């Protein structure tokens, strides 16, 4: 049995590395106001957050992760560039349909992390390199993705703004996204909404329903997405392989799709920056779907490190969340990237070696 002290000691080791990199330790409250947080976290965390009502403070949430409260604190009074680190418990309800022992025990666990607010183009490589070095003794397997590339591709599609917004909204839900793409690629049969004197019923107001009907009627007159675009999108979203292999494929793809060349160059430049830090791109796996299974506030580079055990969550994960700083900055923004690791899993790995 691994004690909490053993887990915290491993967390403190990581924290020391983050401090040596110039990070200031920050300790957000365990109990946080829920109103704004519920809108900022993705659907997965929203469904798994512990929420309660306080008679004075209103709706409150047990801390489900550190990134959002750290960004809130930084955007309220932080300078730039800035580096923060933290160590503490996070709390998440478990999926009742998931009986895997490693996830069933994780409603409360220790999390250590590092957040970097900087306009330095090398920031992604710096954060990834730090976690790569920390996890080197554990033979962790690295996977990366880039939500910025996928979102840039969706924004180039010759579709209506409403359809583009719908695809972007559901980009973190692959099954729903695939259904929308298929629907937008086929003609839409017009829907009849006959006039009626019957009273409006249901939870929605009359003006809401009239707006919805107008949107459906407008969508029916929208031409379908040409097959070539859906094919390009599916090819991009299915990219997998070593980072070296994928960068070569991206160079070929952008010859026919120059509108995404800028975002693709970001992926290629990041591979070069990692190589400059002594990290072999052939040892890193790129999976375009990777970012779609992480936090919804990640809108660029994403990464995770796994122990190679299917029943385990990642040992560490992270990514870029520039849009989150725009939302919380109320007119201010700064590029930001960070990551977390789970000391409890590292302690289990050490015990098993």
In words, what does this structure look like?
The structure is a single chain. It is globular and about 70 Å long. A hairpin with a 3-residue loop joins strand 3 (51-54) and strand 4. Among the domains are: 4-140 and 307-352, 2-Layer Sandwich (BirA Bifunctional Protein, domain 2), CATH 3.30.930.10; 160-192 and 205-231, no CATH class. The two termini are 15 Å apart. The chain has helices at 4-20, 34-40, 43-48, 67-77, 101-104, 123-135, 147-155, 161-169, 174-184, 206-220, 227-237, 243-256, 261-276, 322-329, 343-352, and strands at 24-25, 31-33, 51-54, 58-62, 82-91, 108-117, 141-146, 240-242, 284-287, 301-306, 316-320, 336-341. The strands form two sheets. The protein has a nine-stranded mixed sheet, sandwiched between helices. Residues 99-104 have low confidence and may be disordered. The chain is 46% helix and 18% strand. With 353 residues, it is an alpha+beta fold. Helix 4 (67-77) crosses helix 14 (322-329), helix 6 (123-135) crosses helix 13 and helix 12 (243-256) runs antiparallel to helix 13. Residues 7-173, 225-339 form the Class II Histidinyl-tRNA synthetase (HisRS)-like catalytic core domain. Pfam families: tRNA-synt_His. L-histidine binds at residues 65-67, 92, 111, 115, 292, 297-298. InterPro entries: aa-tRNA-synth_II/BPL/LPL, HisRS-like_core, HisRS/HisZ. This is ATP phosphoribosyltransferase regulatory subunit.
């Amino acid at each position: 049995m691994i004690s909490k002290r053993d887990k915290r000691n491993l967390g403190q080791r990581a924290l020391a590395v983050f401090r040596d990199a110039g990070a200031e330790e920050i300790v957000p409250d365990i109990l946080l106001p829920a109103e704004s947080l519920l809108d900022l976290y993705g659907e997965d965390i929203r469904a798994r957050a512990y929420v309660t009502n306080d008679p004075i403070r209103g709706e409150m949430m047990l801390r489900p992760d550190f990134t959002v409260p750290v960004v809130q604190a930084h955007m309220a009074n932080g300078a730039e560039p800035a580096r923060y680190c933290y160590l503490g418990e996070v709390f998440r309800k478990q999926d009742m349909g998931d009986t895997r022992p490693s996830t069933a025990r994780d409603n409360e666990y220790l999390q250590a992390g590092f957040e970097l607010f900087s306009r330095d183009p090398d920031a992604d490589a710096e954060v990834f390199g730090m976690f790569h070095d920390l996890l080197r003794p554990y033979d962790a397997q690295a996977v990366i993705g880039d939500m910025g590339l996928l979102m840039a591709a969706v924004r180039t599609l010759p579709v209506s703004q409403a359809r583009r917004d719908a695809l972007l909204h559901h980009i973190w839900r692959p099954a729903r996204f695939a259904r929308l793409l298929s629907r937008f690629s086929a003609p839409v049969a017009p829907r009849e909404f006959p006039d009626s004197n019957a009273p409006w019923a249901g939870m929605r107001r009359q003006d809401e329903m009239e707006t919805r009907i107008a949107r459906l009627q407008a969508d029916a007159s929208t031409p379908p997405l040409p097959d070539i675009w859906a094919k390009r999108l599916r090819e991009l979203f299915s990219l997998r392989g070593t980072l070296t292999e994928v960068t070569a494929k991206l160079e070929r793809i952008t010859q026919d799709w120059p509108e995404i060349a800028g975002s693709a160059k970001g992926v290629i430049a990041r591979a070069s920056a990692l190589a400059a830090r002594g990290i072999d791109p052939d040892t890193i796996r790129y999976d375009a779907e990777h970012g779609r299974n992480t936090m919804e506030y990640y809108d660029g580079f994403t990464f995770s490190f796994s122990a190679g055990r299917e029943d385990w969550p990642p040992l560490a994960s992270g990514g870029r969340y520039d849009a989150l700083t725009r939302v919380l900055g109320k007119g201010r923004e700064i590029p930001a990237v960070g990551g977390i690791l789970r000391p409890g899993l590292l302690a289990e790995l050490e015990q098993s070696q």
